């Protein structure tokens, strides 16, 4: 399975925001030009360019598809606090794309991006919490994802979750979401987790 289809619009927006002018016709030649322009910037430590390369390698845009190389570039950007990279690594660890599948790493990267106000990471974190049956926390993150205009079906997912929750739990999640947002994402009830290394174990 490839990277989450919700990342495709982000992929193009990241490429075009990294000092590369947008083109109306996206061709193989365009992508090779982007690759040539992004690579030196990424090697110099520019986080947005590193994210751009991560996307290109993960999706095979102008280069041979290589999830491990994509994960490498995302990790370099994530270590600089780039929320887009952290979100994409969360997806990679959840799916086992270029790295060994690791649920705790997926959650930590998602949390790192979510507390920066990254709506898509908040949506993803809500899903992870829901899968773990942590419905109050899941609902809290869905509220914040909707607030931050996350791509996808965050509103529909939130409404579906309401059907299996008690009203008191919904009210609690709403209070948690308000407190989280008002504190600048410093009081979101995130549990401490182990620190992660550079990328974790890489898949063969």
Explain what the structure shows.
The protein folds into two domains: 1-100, no CATH class; 115-188, no CATH class. The chain is mainly alpha-helical. Helix 3 packs antiparallel against helix 4, helix 4 (67-78) packs antiparallel against helix 5 and helix 6 packs antiparallel against helix 7 (119-131). It has ten helices and no strands.
Summarize the structure.
The chain has 204 residues and is an all-alpha fold. The chain is built from ten helices and no strands. The protein has two domains: 100 residues, no CATH class; 74 residues, no CATH class.
What summary fits the major beta sheet?
Answer: none
Strand content: under 5%
Multimeric state = single chain
**Average of pLDDT:** 85
Strands, total number = 0
Give unreliable regions as ranges.
1-6, 20-24, 192-198
Distance N to C terminus: 16 Å
> How would you classify the helix and strand content by structural class?
mainly alpha
Gross morphology is elongated
Number of helices: 10
Q: Percent range for helical residues?
A: 55-70%
Instruction: Calculate Rg over CA atoms.
Output: 17 Å
Task: Quickly count the domains.
Answer: 2
Element-by-element helix/strand order: HHHHHHHHHH
List the helices and strands and how they pair.
Layout: H1 7-16, H2 28-43, H3 47-59, H4 67-78, H5 83-95, H6 103-114, H7 119-131, H8 135-147, H9 154-162, H10 167-182
